[in-house]
Amino acid sequence: MTYGPADGHPANSPLGEHAPHRQAPPGLAVSVAAHTLAGGLATGSIAVALGQGAGLTLVYPATALGCYAIFAILLALHVGGHAPHDRFGAANQVTLFRGVIASLIGGTIPVLDQLTAEALWVASLAALLALALDGIDGWLARKTRMASLYGKLLDMNFDTVLMGILAVIAWQGGKVGVWVLAIGLARPIFVAVGWIWPILRAELPFSQRRRVICVVQIAVLLVCPIPVVEPPLSSLAAAAALGLLLFSFAVDTLWLVRSGAERDPGANQSRTDIRRVP
After folding, report:
1. pLDDT band at 261 (very low <50, low <70, confident <90, very high)
2. At 12, is the secondary structure helix, strand, or coil?
3. Which of 16, 195, 235, 269 is the most exposed place for a label (fewest CB within 10 A)?
4. What is the pTM of this model?
5. Rounded Cα–Cα distance for residues 275 and 181 (Å)
6. Residue 22 — very low, low, confident or very high, per pLDDT cuts 50/70/90?
7. Calpha distance 69→58 (Å, rounded)
8. Does residue 11 sit within a domain?
9. Residue 171 placed within a domain
10. 277 contacts: CB under 8 Å, gap ≥ 6
11. Is 182:242 a contact under the CB 8 Å cutoff?
12. Among the listed residues 80, 82, 99, 88, the one whose alpha carbon sits nearest the alpha carbon of residue 35
């Protein structure tokens, strides 16, 4: 789990566009495609069933599938980064399951006014499940010896999208102002700035701070829809979470700038193996 400039690998962006490109084994491409299709079928069927049970319009399953389409695109990116493994792996299956959960939650965005208090509780508990599973995929990858750049990027990207979905729900549900979207947009904005200022593309050392703050962001956003959490409490909690996030980005940006002063900033555009910092 990482929400902030990526640590431990050379891809400092939600899409990992600066990750090294490798040829994916044929079996791996088939495995990724099969899992992507299975995830889509699961999302669609569960969304239809939930929508019918809750009396929601077809907008709900359609939006859920739209959210899953984003995850499907992320699944297809940089598959070669999973080489030499030729199968999707249990760790990535957990990450994919989290994507299905996030998609089902995202489907509620246009129908929030149709949800009962019980449904809002269920959505928050589902987000809690996605959060709880966020540490399992990495552990599984190490346990099964299938850790890869692809898996790291996938986990990071899914966190970014989940954060955006929860931020939109908090805003559309009337619990927090539109400014809460900054939590979901912080990382994409950081990446966009990196396109202009290459020094921000360098690798950062591992930071437990980023992991903890990521948990805080998701935890705050997932409790906002709960009926018992009302303004101004929801706004104060979200503001505190955003403040922590901005502080974390500021610390990392300052480190990158200071570190970049010791080398040629233009080298970050071509180098994919940046030296690690103890």
Report:
1. low
2. coil
3. 269
4. 0.83
5. 34
6. low
7. 17
8. no
9. yes
10. 204, 205, 259
11. yes
12. 88
For residue 204, give its domain range: 26-269
The two tokens of residue 278 are 């103890």
CA angle 55, 128, 51 (to 5 degrees): 10
CA atoms of 197 and 168, how far apart (whole Å):
28
Task: Provide the token pair at 101.
Answer: 């959960």
For residue 203, tell me if it sits in a domain: yes
Sort 262 into a burial class: Cβ within 10 Å, 0-12 / 13-18 / 19+: exposed
- Cα 122 to Cα 220: distance, rounded to the nearest angstrom: 16
Rg (alpha carbons) of the chain, rounded to whole number: 19
- Which residue, 104, 107, 139, is CA-closest to 125? 104
Nearest to 245, CA basis, from 176, 175, 186:
186
Tokens in use for 129?
């499940």
Residue with structure tokens 């959060």?
131
Selection from 229, 15, 222, 237 nearest residue 108 by Cα:
222
For the segment 126-154, what is each residue's pLDDT rounded down to a tens digit?
A: 999 999 998 898 889 888 888 888 888 88
Tell which residue, 43, 45, 25, 44, has the closest CA to residue 89.
25
Whether 139 maps to a domain, the answer reads yes
Tell me which DSSP letter residue 197 carries.
Answer: S
The type of residue at 125 is: L
Instruction: List, for residues 71-80, the tens digit of each pLDDT value.
Output: 999 998 878 7
Is the separation of the CB atoms in 129 and 220 below 8 Å? no
DSSP structure class, residue 244: H
Residue 76: CA count within 13 A, CB half-sphere? 11
